[in-house]
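name: query_chain
kind: protein
chains: 1
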Amino acid sequence: MRTRLQTAIFRQPVILACVIFIAGLTLLAILAPLLPLNDPTSQSVVARLQPPSAQYPMGTDRLGRDVLSRLIWGTQVSLIVGVGVVVVCAVVGSLAGVWTGYFRNWSSELIMRLTDVMLAFPPLVLAMVMVALLGNHIYTVILAISVAVIPRFTRIARASVLTVRHQGYVEAAHGLGSNTPSILWRHLLLNAVDPLIVICTFLIPTAILTEATLSFIGLGVVEPTPTWGNMINDGQLVLREAPWLVGFPSMAVLLTVLAFNLLGDAVRDALDPNVPGL
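structure:
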């Protein structure tokens, strides 16, 4: 798998560019406190709505805040939300999927019926309700998006477990007296992990886009914390006067989501033995 993934990345310049872009974005978010940036929350009436210049490479917003500084600090929020949602979904969704795929009892049926009910709601609507109930904070946003996506993750994990639960090595483990936790971890989850890796790769851009949407409509992380979504929301009020206020954060969302989606395609192809040439 590792060799196929390396081949998929290095043989395709577009995928390699996506990997470099994501690595650079991550490094930028980590080093944001150490970079010589203006305070992203510092306001100046004199400097409001300044166009891009040497002093302000991406201009300033309605309150005179540096757009470049806010964009970089907003990268932290987007990546924290993306990674946080993946961690929560991977842990909860994998456990629920393995449990319901392996056991046949009332608890697994209850989990699947709850999953079916949650799947009836659009993820964005469910996330909006959760944030409205729990409040606007980065941790509640992560929880809200995770709750909206976990049912789909559970379904995929369950399908993967059902595919391998009747394989010969699982039956052999039963015959040799392996305990249930060992079978669940070593023989089911680890052998059904490929589809879960793929969905985790696609889940990051979904979480980033959902967080930006929530912030845009005022239900995500609120001011003064800079996020790409609330930057776009603030900029659309003066779109004709200062189009850069919408253009730069929108481009950041577009490029980040595109890069993760293209990387997800490469990971999926690398894990698929039916794809030739890798």
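note: The chain has a mean pLDDT of 83.
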